Structures are given as structure tokens and as C-alpha cells.
Amino acid sequence: MLKEVYEPKKVFSLNEANKTLPLVSRIIQDVVRTHQELTKRGERARKLRQEKRTAQATAQATVQAAEEEARAQDLGYEIESYFEELEKIGCSCKDPVLGLVDFPACVGDQIILLCWKLGEPQILYYHDLKSGFARRKPVGDLFNSNPKSA
Length: 150
Prior knowledge:
By secondary structure, the protein is an alpha+beta fold. About 50% of the residues lie in helices and about 15% in strands. The protein is built from 2 helices and 5 strands. The chain has a 5-stranded antiparallel β-sheet. Helix 1 runs antiparallel to helix 2 (about 55-90). The radius of gyration is 20 Å and the shape is elongated. The model is unreliable at about 145-150 (pLDDT under 50).
């Protein structure tokens, strides 16, 4: 059986990751805002297609639904471009609703993910590759005990 290996493009120190937060925060704010609008547009399109109407109203609703769907698709492309910006920085968005971002880091010979949520003043948590937001742990002295990765 092959073991899946994760090799990040960039490995951050805690300090390096924290230094990216002003830019990452702006991008993630755009992601969250755009995702909210995409969700609203998709819901509007769904409602327009489901409501029962007269034949003329149905035709208008179909046109409106198509317009909402087209705008939602454009918003999806916009979100993809934000994800690409984050990828160029070296981090990734894990949840466009909450604004969760992971930064690969190294402790000893183990890759971990520094975990930041929109609104947090700095990176305060991490988790291993198999865990997620629900199992994140405080950074605390994690890096103080390993000067190479600080």
C-alpha cells in the first residue's frame, strides 16, 4: 500500500506566517464576502426556479434565475482567484464561511498546519495533517522548544 505524502510548496515559521496575516486577512475577507454573495445568488436562483407562476411569470423567473446563476458562477471564479492568491503566498483556505486558513509548518521532522481564523489577532493554533479545525491545539510553546522551526 502506498503512503500518501504531503509536500507543501512552502513551510512557514510561526513568525513568517504571522507576518503574512495583514495580506491573508484582506484576501480571506474577500473570500468570505464573495462566498456569502454566491450563496445568496444560488438560493435566489433555486427559489425562482421552484416557485409556481403563470406562464409569463415563469418565463421572467427563468431569465432571472439564469442571471443569478451566471453571477454565482462569476463569483465562484472570483473565489478561485482568491484561492490562487493564497496558494502563491503558501497557505490555503480551508473554510470560506468561517475564513479558516492553514499554513504548513515543520516541528522536528513532522509537518503540521498552523491554523488561523478570520478575526484572530495572530496564529494561535495548529493541528496535524489529519486533524482539522475541531481538533486544533494552542501553539503555546510548540516552537519555543524547537529553535529550527521558530
